[in-house]
């Protein structure tokens, strides 16, 4: 089936550029080998409504529907460290959990600071932890901490527990 070479529309006579399927003016098919097909609308089948009792049973794991690995809550994982901005130069720093309450120094500008509870509430941009399923290192934004998330590598469910 050749593409429309360009020229006058067979129905309205307006010039149409090459590679069109229908006329931009009258919407007629430009290639005589094409024909307008009808789209069959499928039969409407209403979905079964789930009662609140069935939903609660499914979410608790006693039902058989919806209990795949992604529906089950994953293990709670503590953070192994934090990503924070240096108060001096604003560069991002990766601070292990063991140094969270100790005096640390920026490796870029040498400004010392303590990642105390106040700074942890305001400055932490992300946490990192290892996935309990595949052991890959995960970076988790603070908007996803204390929520069920899936591992980027294996898809396993987990929750990073972080309390500043």
Structure description:
- With 164 residues, this protein is mostly beta strands.
- It folds into two domains: 1-41, no CATH class; 76-160, no CATH class.
- It is 10% helix and 25% strand.
- The strands form four sheets. Strands 5-4-8-9 form a four-stranded antiparallel beta sheet. The chain has a three-stranded mixed beta sheet with strand order 3-11-10, with no helix packed on it. It has a two-stranded antiparallel ribbon with strand order 1-2.
- A hairpin with a 6-residue loop joins strand 1 (7-8) and strand 2.
- The longest helix has 9 residues, at 52-60.
- The N and C termini lie far apart (66 Å).
Cα distance spanning the termini: 66 Å
Order of helices and strands: EEHEEEEEHEEEE
Shape descriptor reads: elongated
Average of per-residue pLDDT values? 82
Helical content band: under 10%
Query: What composes the largest sheet?
Result: 4 strands, antiparallel
How many domains, as an integer? 2
The number of helical runs is 2
Amount of beta strand: 25-35%
Label the structural class.
mainly beta
**Which sequence of strands runs across the widest sheet?**
5-4-8-9
The Cα radius of gyration reads: 30 Å
Low-confidence runs (pLDDT<50, min 5 residues)? 62-70
Number of strands: 11
